[in-house]
TrEMBL record:
This is Leucine-rich repeat domain-containing protein. The lineage of its organism: Eukaryota, Fungi, Dikarya, Ascomycota, Pezizomycotina. Residues 86-404 form the Leucine-rich repeat domain. It comes from Aspergillus taichungensis. It comes from the Eukaryota.
Amino acid sequence: MPTSHRSHTRIEMKPAKKVMSHWNTCPADILHLIFQLLSPAEHQALCLVNRSYQSIAAPLLYSRIHFTWLVKNFEDHSESEPPPPVTRLLRTLLSKPQLAAHIRSFHLKGRIWCVGEARFKFPKIHIPEDELDESIASIDRTGVPYREHWSQELRGGSVDALVALILTQLPSVRHIHLGGDFTRQCALTCMMLRSAICEAGTYQLCDFQHLQTLSYLRRETRDEAYGKSIEIRNHADILPFFYLPNIRHVRASMDNMENWTWPTPHAPVASKLTSLDLYTIREGCLGEILSVTKNLTALSWKWYYDTDVRDQFVTQILDLDKIGTALSHVQETLTDLTITADSLHQNIPFGHGITEVGSLRAMVNCARIKTLQIPLIFLVGFAQDKTKRLQDVLPKSIEFLTITDDLAYQSNEDLEKGWHSWEWEDYTIPDLVGPWIRERTRWAPTLKRVTLLLEWMNMETDQWLSRVREQLQALSVQTGIPIELTGEAG
């Protein structure tokens, strides 16, 4: 029996040893394919097994760093979660800089600015005292002239100073997203980026030469933490990125600049930049950006007006001529154009109206546009003018057209005297689009679909008369062009 027992034991142990042996002798490229299917927590566990596994799992673990600072109770927004472990990440990158080379995607966003007192003060993230010296030493090594101020801000828990320092540790990053609480203050981040990109080689900073996509978003409304100050500008944060040789997509909130100046004596040549999503920048400055994007194929731009902003750009005037001039910079390359519009009223019930001037006739020259989403008023204005024709503003190359009713709420009777109100009624829409679609062989020979996204006009259900739908359906059958009528964004 003992002999039989020992024999049985050997039979059980051999498969386990073989399994471990097979894993340890498995080619690294096969292990990499397997490890790719695992979660970050599993990657972290594998890093602790042995050096061989760590060499494969660590690049996967650090390739994508995404942190979100959340509200603990979304129902009453009364409390926020503790900040994400960004200080722990910084400590790791400073002590093991070889790991930073693996980071390809870096994502920080936060929503605690909407929580109680956090609305009125900037968030703080403090580095532990026993780790501050190493962080300060890293700032000193950069050699930048503002390093003392940077160090002081970091000691005080400035999120801006912390973000700026983390960014200096990312030599191989390809994708950056910063938003919410991580962009409420940005002066130091701005200075660091200008030094790193526009004065490359002068200081001990990474130059972001591998960066391909950037998302840098700030609140559209005024930040209460600034008190009554409304002169906070962030355009300088974004502009250095246009100098990067491999930048392909930028999604950013940009303020307007009274005297437009690029951060170097020469404007950038963003030859690889093909996609732009821009917010808060108005038509007066839009052309400055588009003038350096000669190969742009996709543009999404949000026009906005905010009653709480007082400057020469964010006004109640919608200048269609300036928009047309801005688009002329990319008329040879642009294929996808999305324009949305919004008016932010701080405790003012539609009392400040918007009026349009000029026309968007210059858009006809954007002869490569295939997909277009645009508010109706950008095409024909607020007034119900039946002499306006879509063919006078729409390029012939359009395949997919979406017309929205952005700013349609400006039909309110409380508008200040002299400002335009929305006059277009639902029953006039078929008369506007009908002639253009019927003569599509002349005006839009490649047209494939028309979508009418009319959210505000659809607020009153009795406005949508059955004959309007019938007219559009008949028009669709007659022309063979699908016409979708909807009150909801897709």
